[in-house]
Design goal:
This protein is α+β, with helices and mostly antiparallel strands. It folds into two domains: 45 residues; 44 residues, no CATH class. Helices cover 57% and strands 12% of the residues. Strands 1-2-3 form a three-stranded antiparallel beta sheet. The longest helix is centred in the N-terminal third of the chain and has 43 residues.
Length: 100
């Protein structure tokens, strides 16, 4: 009978150790993923998705627009397109001249 209780005791501690190691691995993997995301963001921040050159921020009617003067690309962040569509017709026509 004592042998059976020793087996259960060993199984219990093995399970606890396994859970501890699993949590450590999950935390490490999460930290690695966060570091990689941060590294990629720093590497690509304010870079043109098309040609990779630096983007310049242009203020148009209170809306910040990212423009690449290398490939002439214009990039909008979240909510900027909606803000531009709320502009009056003459202001919107002026914005469209940026593309030309």
């Amino acid at each position: 009978m004592p042998e059976k209780s020793l087996d259960k005791e060993e199984e219990y501690f093995a399970r606890i150790e396994f859970e501890r190691l699993r949590k450590l691995h999950e935390e490490r993997d999460k930290q690695i993923a966060e570091n990689e995301k941060r590294r990629l963001k720093e590497m690509h921040f304010m870079r043109c998705p098309k040609c990779g050159m630096e983007l310049s921020e242009i203020d148009y009617q209170g809306v910040k627009i990212d423009k690449c003067f290398s490939c002439e690309g214009v990039w909008l962040d979240a909510g900027e397109l909606e803000a531009l569509t709320m502009l009056k017709k003459p202001a919107l026509d002026g914005f469209l001249r940026i593309f030309k």
